[in-house]
Design a protein that fits this description.
Elements: H1 8-18, H2 32-40, E1 43-48, E2 51-52, E3 56-58, E4 64-65, H3 67-79, E5 82-88, H4 94-99, E6 105-110, E7 119-121, E8 128-135, E9 150-154, H5 158-166, E10 171-175, H6 178-186, E11 192-196, H7 197-207, E12 212-222, E13 224-229, H8 233-244, H9 248-258, H10 264-267, H11 269-310, H12 312-367, E14 371-379, E15 385-393, H13 395-401, H14 405-408, H15 413-417, H16 422-434, E16 438-444, E17 449-456, E18 462-469, H17 471-493, E19 497-502, E20 507-510, H18 512-518, H19 538-551, E21 554-563, E22 569-581, E23 584-594, H20 596-614, H21 620-676, H22 682-709, E24 717-720, H23 721-731, H24 733-738, E25 741-747, E26 752-755, H25 757-778, E27 783-792, E28 795-802, H26 830-842, E29 846-852, E30 855-862
Parallel strand pairs: 1-5, 9-10, 9-11, 25-27
Antiparallel strand pairs: 2-3, 3-4, 6-13, 7-13, 8-11, 8-12, 14-15, 14-18, 16-17, 17-18, 19-20, 19-23, 21-22, 22-23, 24-26, 27-28, 28-30, 29-30
């Protein structure tokens, strides 16, 4: 093929010469009606694409510029239009903005059948071929060659829909900008770029890309035109006539400014030259037709001139009348002008106040620690809210939401927060429309945080959101609730009544056993505890509560009678202690163990003893029968002892929890004060959370220790003596601290024995509890309990001593008898009796007690049994 040698400048000059006479055929002068229309519509609202060079874009200085902008500048000079702001729009927003009367003119828009329904289009002021751009080394020439290959098209360009419809075999890759498309084909990420030749030329020249070419034509053209709202046909007609009246030189100046023709030499100048030749031939034809039209117009002008001369006198008369009206109107205008001046002065003062308010708002907006975002609501064609877009965010937004500002601003909520944003659209749209503020708490999975959101309406159609991060508070609340739930579950598992009453004796908590025993439906909250006490015990129990509250201490336990839901009187053994917060008694917490079986057993045992005295010693069979029954009652006694121990353990847990609960209460008070004084920053929250979690872990550990302690032993095992003693000391540590009792474990080495570890720990616990009671009744301060562990032959010796004053010499030999009063305590020494049974019967050891100086000593000797 021969190479084309005619230069582009030569063709442009020829085109200018052929079209030079076109200026003689300018549009007709404006009619009076058109002038009146323009006078009534001085300010026009235009919608432009901010990033579509060289056709139209907003430069770095914020000025609207480009080919379409130059055309509009020419039209503005011709018609005297003034724009009331230029609004940046996206293609998919044009329909809704036109229907809402927010746009009047769109300078650069492709013509489609859908857009013709609500817009009037001028004739295209330029036709640009849509070409295939490839690397110079590529052999692609047509759209058919692109089948199965990747082709980049700028998103929202009109040609994208055409290519997808007519050529479904092409793998379309949407890119944000023309520059991204040129980079993609230049770097080989895609096989080709499809776009209009003006945009390609402009951007390739700007980017300095030289390895591309125009490979072939798509057969499509980009035909931009000026669009006017449907109800303004007058303006559309005037713009159309102005465009037709532009000279070729004026148009050529616009194109030369924005399109560097020489650049096409690198990527396909031959096709552009052919295009310009076609435009030249079309222009010659248009000039010939315009010449014929001009001759006809001269004839009509002569006829009109004659008619005008005949009406000259009528016009003179009308002129005089008009002058009189002008004089009258001038006076009216002066008055209106003065009113307008006053109104302008007032508006200027308002604008100054608004600017000051805006400055204060911006300062507050930027300095807030909480995340703040301004949004606009997005509506569909039916006027329904479908999404909302972020318009602006403060600096704290990036830190709190962990979303960069450049990603957030301009992005739809569905993109930022995913499907979870849909639940807020209707609520926030209501705020934007009605102006009624709302406050909600929500979890945003995409951010992974809990927020308190305060939403209000700064302007109609928009809303602002303040995001306060409450994730740490939520975690702390959940942990406290979980801990409380665990305590309630544990209390509900116990076969004893666990209760709490306030300082007035009104129930605030009861476990399941209490509810069932007292015959209530759901809860005892609000019920006076005295109404559940047997009538003959009310006075004694009232005094018992008063003593606990007055002394702010733990009561060792006492027997009372309570009334069940079915009218039965049930004997119980009650352990109770004061609930103290911030040094003030808030109520009483306790455990009531049903001792009905024990009372019945005591009664039956007494009756059997009387019978045995009357029986003949020779009635061996009767004796064996009674012994068997007695053994069964002993099993009941063991169970009662275990329940009594569990009651004491609940009280001990209450002591163990008293300190961490007080610490948690103090943490919550500190959080509230920090929030009230706006000092609740992230370091403080982390500190509060860490301290709170430490206290909760302590409480959870106490529950685990309690659960493990009462787990029954199924078979013997090798266990550490020191560890079992330490476990018992740990369970009683809170009670010891409350009574200012110090403890000490002395062990030269870790000695292990073979037996039942939990039964051994229960024995140690019973002896330690007995020692605590002795110390607290003998002295107020400086109580000491010492445990010494050492070898005894092939076994182990444990000595437990206290400084509680010792045991009466006349009673010391009977301390291991069942129900024998120990050290003057209320109640019976079931624990010591069962301890002796466990040591001698289950562990094959021995236990004795003796007095030492200032106190007593329990000595346990156990063999080091080894499993066979």
């Amino acid at each position: 093929m021969r190479q084309i040698t005619i230069s582009v400048r030569t063709i442009a000059a020829l085109l200018l010469l052929l079209l030079a006479t076109a200026s003689a055929f300018a549009a007709e002068e404006l009619t009076e009606g058109e002038r009146q229309w323009l006078a009534a519509h001085k300010k026009i609202r235009a919608g432009v694409s901010p990033d579509f060079p060289p056709f139209e874009f907003v430069d770095e200085a914020g000025h609207y510029t480009g080919i379409a902008a130059d055309y509009m500048q020419h039209i503005n000079k011709r018609l005297g239009l003034v724009y009331d702001g230029i609004e940046n729009v996206q293609t998919d927003e044009i329909n809704s903005m036109v229907k809402a009367n927010r746009l009047d003119v769109i300078p650069c828009l492709g013509i489609t059948e859908e857009r013709k329904k609500y817009l009037i289009f001028t004739k295209p002021y330029i036709e640009i071929p849509v070409e295939i751009i490839t690397k110079k080394s590529s052999n692609i020439m047509t759209l058919k060659d692109l089948k199965g290959k990747k082709a980049a098209i700028v998103s929202d360009y009109d040609e994208e829909d055409l290519i997808r419809r007519d050529h479904p075999g092409i793998n379309i890759v949407s890119v944000p900008t023309m520059e991204d498309g040129l980079k993609a084909v230049s770097f080989g990420d895609v096989d080709a770029l499809i776009g209009n030749v003006f945009s390609v030329t402009y951007h390739s020249g700007k980017m300095g890309i030289t390895n591309l070419k125009i490979a072939g034509s798509t057969g499509y053209t980009y035909r931009p035109a000026i669009a006017v709202r449907k109800d303004w046909p007058e303006l559309a007609d005037m713009i159309e006539r102005t465009l037709q009246g532009m000279t070729a030189a004026e148009k050529e100046d616009i194109y030369r400014q924005w399109v560097r023709i020489e650049k096409f030499g690198d990527i396909g100048s031959k096709r552009l030259l052919l295009m310009l030749l076609s435009v030249t031939m079309a222009a010659v034809t248009a000039i010939f037709l315009l010449f014929i039209w001009k001759e006809r117009l001269k004839t009509r002008v002569k006829e009109k001139t004659k008619e005008l001369e005949l009406s000259k006198e009528a016009l003179e008369k009308a002129r005089n009348e008009l002058e009189k009206r002008v004089t009258d109107r001038t006076s009216e205008l002066r008055e209106a002008n003065e009113k307008l001046r006053i109104e302008i002065t007032r508006k200027q003062a308002v604008e100054v106040a608004l600017k000051e308010s805006e400055s204060k708002y911006r300062s507050l907006f930027s300095s807030m620690n909480d995340a703040v975002a301004l949004h606009e609501v997005i509506y569909n064609d039916k006027g329904e809210a479908v999404d909302f877009r972020v318009l602006d965010v403060n600096p704290a937004y990036e830190t709190v939401m962990e979303i960069p500002r450049e990603r957030a601003v301009g992005t739809l909520s569905g993109v930022l927060f995913g499907a979870h944003s849909g639940q807020f659209i209707e609520l926030f749209a209501g705020v934007a429309q009605k102006g009624v503020a709302v406050s909600i708490e929500a979890h945003l999975p995409s951010v992974g945080k809990h927020f308190k959101m305060s939403v209000f309406c700064p302007a109609r159609g928009r809303f602002a959101s303040i995001f306060s991060d409450i994730t740490e508070h939520k975690m702390l609340d959940d942990a406290l609730k979980a801990s409380e739930e665990k305590f309630r579950e544990l209390a509900d598992m116990l076969p004893a009544i666990v209760f709490e009453v306030n300082e007035k004796g009104v129930f605030t908590f009861t476990n399941r056993c209490g509810i069932e025993t007292l015959g209530l439906t759901h809860t005892t909250d609000g019920l006076d505890i005295l109404k559940t006490i047997g009538d003959d015990n009310v006075g004694a129990f009232k005094a018992h509560l008063a003593k606990i509250i007055e002394e702010q201490t733990v009561c060792g336990g006492a027997e009372f009678k309570i009334k069940s839901g079915d009218g039965r009187i049930i004997p119980v053994f009650i352990y109770a202690s004061a609930i103290i917060h911030d040094g003030i008694v808030r109520g009483v917490r306790g455990v009531a163990v049903d001792i009905t079986e024990r009372v019945l057993f005591e009664k039956a045992l007494h009756e059997k003893s009387l019978q045995l005295e009357r029986l003949n010693n020779g009635l061996e069979a009767r004796v064996r029968e009674e012994i068997t029954k007695t053994i069964e009652q002993q099993h009941v006694l063991i169970q009662q002892s275990r329940l009594a121990s569990m009651g004491e353990m609940i009280v001990n847990i209450a002591h163990q929890w008293s300190q961490p609960l007080s610490a948690l209460n103090l943490i919550l008070i500190n959080i509230k004060e920090a929030s009230d004084f706006d000092e609740l920053d992230k370091p403080n929250i982390n500190d509060f959370t860490s301290k709170g979690q430490q206290q909760i872990k302590k409480m959870a550990a106490t529950i685990d220790e309690f659960r493990n302690f009462f787990k029954p032993d199924k078979e013997k095992e090798l266990f550490s003596v020191s560890k079992s003693i330490n476990d018992a000391l740990a369970l009683l540590s809170g009670s010891f601290r409350n009574y200012l009792i110090s403890t000490q474990l002395n062990s030269t080495e870790d000695i292990s024995i073979y037996g039942y570890p939990h039964e051994f720990s229960q024995v140690i616990l019973n002896i330690l509890s007995n020692a605590k009671e002795a110390v607290t009744r003998f002295r107020n301060v400086d109580g000491v309990i010492t445990v010494d562990v050492s070898h005894e032959g092939t076994g182990v010796r444990i000595d437990i001593t206290d400084n509680g004053g010792g045991i009466d010499a006349g009673l010391i030999s009977n301390v291991f008898d069942p129900y024998f009063p120990s050290k003057g305590r209320d109640g019976a020494s079931i624990g010591l009796h069962m301890s002796k049974r466990i040591i001698e019967d289950h562990l094959n050891g021995s236990i004795v007690v003796d007095n030492i100086e200032g106190g007593s000593r329990f000595t346990i000797i156990l063999p080091s049994q080894v499993p066979a």
